[in-house]
Design brief:
single chain; Rossmann fold; 7 strands; 26% strand
């Protein structure tokens, strides 16, 4: 799949992501989740670096994004927050890391955009150390029938404009993957999930 159009969409959204970061968008949830990140951390689709303010001092982050404009923003934030970070400009779905390479893997609102989210969840299980952590904030299909119907209707247009699907059943995708869910919190009628998981089944 040619993702050049999707990359251009996210390049255009880089300033908006930076504004949201300064507004501490989802700040309480990010803090709750990311305080458990430790060691070698892989962050998928780092965006404008909204998570950097919530990492502890005992992390070494590898941050990936396919949008160069997003990475420009994220690099400034990493320096500002004094988070040691290696940045990789790449499509995470095309990258390969060695097995058990990371202590913690983090994704916040990235799985709505992947071509094959199930396969990506399997990759996280492979890349994470056996005793490691996979920490996720993801959005998906609401359990509320009315909201879920609206999400399904607007999904094609939303993906075309923003590059993010609204109708994915994230919990089902994770349960069908190689990850093991340890804890889940659902918010906004099930649209937003906080998920603590571990590798392997």
């Amino acid at each position: 799949m040619d993702k050049s159009k999707q990359i251009r969409k996210f390049n255009k959204q880089a300033r908006m992501y930076e504004k949201q970061r300064k507004m501490n968008s989802l700040g309480d949830w990010r803090r709750q989740l990311l305080r458990q990140a430790e060691g070698k951390v892989l962050e998928l689709t780092v965006g404008a670096g909204a998570n950097f303010a919530y990492y502890s001092t005992n992390v070494q982050v590898t941050a990936v994004d396919f949008s160069p404009d997003m990475l420009v923003q994220a690099k400034y934030v990493a320096i500002e927050q004094e988070v040691p970070t290696e940045f990789i400009l790449s499509d995470i779905e095309k990258l390969e890391f060695s097995k058990s390479a990371f202590d913690t893997i983090v994704s916040t609102l990235s799985f709505c955009g992947y071509e094959d989210p199930g396969q990506m969840f399997n990759q996280l299980s492979r890349w994470c150390k056996p005793q490691g952590k996979v920490l996720l904030i993801e959005q998906g299909l609401s359990f509320n029938p009315v909201l879920g119907f609206i999400q399904k209707v607007i999904d094609p247009v939303h993906y075309k404009l923003i590059g993010c699907h609204q109708k994915r059943d994230m919990l089902r995708l994770i349960r069908d993957s190689d990850l093991q869910i340890q804890k889940v919190e659902q918010h906004w009628k099930g649209i937003v999930h906080l998920i603590w998981a571990t590798p392997g089944k």
